[in-house]
Q: What sequence folds into this?
């Protein structure tokens, strides 16, 4: 399902052969490190923050864009670490999130029908025949740009950009105008005071706080691309997808007898799967058995995306089924996809209040049903976009016209993302 039709199979095979010989983008020990952290999150010992763009574009491989994405995730995790009093695992939805599922194979405008835009890894968004023809050379371009993004991100982190001693490095250009700036600054100051106190007791700098672990993820949608990155590793058993630390399966490709489940059950990476209100118990338990046959901690992540209006009706039965069957899994809440709506003028958007409501309900429902919500999965950006309604600045439909830049789904902007983190902390402290 959801695979493009390439007009020249020989050209595709040639591109895949070249792709399979290129250096991997991640390492097996990084993958294993993430699995260990996800197992800790299952046990309630850490929280997972997964966030980034709905769909990356090749043009987004630019220093400022990458830095801003990293900044917003670091700032959100700082709030969560301070407020939840525990470690946070940071997983970026970038460095490979170039493919997107489509509701139809074609798109028609003014009587002209062309292939659907499936993300920059496949074709271009311009509505022309030349742009919409799937091009296998884009697979190699996606690999190169993913490598550049990862290299720059690693360089920032290893160079001390993520140093908790200097969170002022993470300020975005427009943060001073944020209504939440004062609340955030209080938390920064509190962490700084705590670090100085601990280092006074220790008699020196605590170097563990000068860097953080950071992982990447993307939807494992384009199977030819994922297969070309799937390799064995010396002195380790099994196969690893070395294009990303954490691949996940979307609802459109989660069929038990589908190729995406068949592929993902065979790799050693931790694997996520999106589950919505339409999933039934047999389907869900079948996914648990297929994707985590040895019932290992840290291997399977269930990402529920119900919508604020449906989560109370549907999530409890799923929690009970997984718990009752004894399956090990980490639960994340995706409060974005179930809350998508269109404005009166046809613009796709989401309401911040619905997003926040679904997260709060998810915490409550897991708690009352003997489970634990281990993290959130968000579509967000570090840019000053206006794509989701509401938030601290109470964005309206008219505001969407100012800076709506997404080519696929609406994202939380920096202020809304930080506000969500602050609200999560506030709610959990009251619980």
A:
């Amino acid at each position: 399902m959801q695979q493009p039709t390439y007009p020249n199979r020989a050209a595709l095979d040639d591109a895949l052969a070249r792709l399979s010989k290129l250096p991997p983008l991640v390492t097996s020990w990084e993958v294993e490190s993430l699995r260990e952290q996800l197992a800790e999150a299952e046990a309630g010992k850490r929280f997972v923050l997964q966030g980034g763009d709905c769909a990356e574009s090749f043009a987004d491989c630019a220093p400022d864009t990458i830095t801003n994405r990293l900044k917003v995730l670091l700032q959100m995790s700082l709030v969560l670490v301070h407020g939840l009093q525990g470690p946070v695992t940071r997983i970026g939805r970038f460095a490979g999130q170039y493919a997107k599922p489509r509701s139809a194979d074609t798109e028609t405008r003014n009587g002209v029908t062309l292939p659907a835009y499936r993300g920059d890894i496949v074709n271009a968004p311009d509505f022309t025949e030349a742009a919409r023809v799937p091009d296998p050379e884009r697979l190699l371009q996606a690999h190169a740009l993913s490598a550049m993004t990862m290299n720059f991100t690693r360089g920032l982190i290893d160079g001390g950009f993520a140093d908790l001693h200097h969170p002022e490095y993470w300020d975005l250009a427009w943060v001073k105008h944020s209504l939440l700036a004062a609340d955030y600054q209080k938390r920064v100051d509190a962490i700084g005071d705590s670090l100085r106190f601990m280092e006074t007791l220790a008699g020196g700098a605590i170097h563990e706080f000068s860097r953080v672990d950071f992982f990447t993820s993307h939807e494992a949608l384009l199977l030819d691309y994922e297969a070309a990155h799937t390799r064995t590793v010396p002195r380790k058993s099994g196969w690893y997808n070395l294009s990303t630390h954490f691949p996940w399966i979307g609802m459109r490709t989660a069929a038990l007898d589908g190729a995406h489940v068949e592929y993902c059950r065979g790799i050693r990476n931790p694997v996520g799967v999106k589950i919505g209100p339409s999933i039934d118990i047999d389907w869900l338990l079948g996914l648990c058995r297929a994707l985590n046959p040895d019932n290992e901690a840290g291997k399977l992540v269930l990402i529920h995306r119900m919508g604020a209006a449906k989560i109370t009706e549907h999530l409890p039965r799923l929690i009970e089924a997984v718990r009752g069957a004894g399956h090990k899994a980490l639960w994340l809440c995706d409060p974005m996809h179930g809350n998508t709506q269109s404005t009166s003028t046809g613009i796709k958007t989401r309401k911040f209040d619905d997003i926040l409501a679904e997260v709060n309900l998810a915490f409550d429902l897991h708690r009352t049903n003997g489970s634990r919500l281990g993290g959130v999965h968000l579509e967000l950006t570090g840019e000053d976009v206006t794509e989701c309604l509401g938030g601290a600045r109470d964005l309206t439909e008219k505001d969407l016209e100012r800076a709506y830049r997404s080519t696929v789904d609406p994202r939380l902007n920096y202020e809304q993302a930080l506000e969500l983190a602050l609200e999560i902390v506030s709610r959990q402290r009251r619980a």
Notes: The first strand starts at residue 47 and ends at 52.
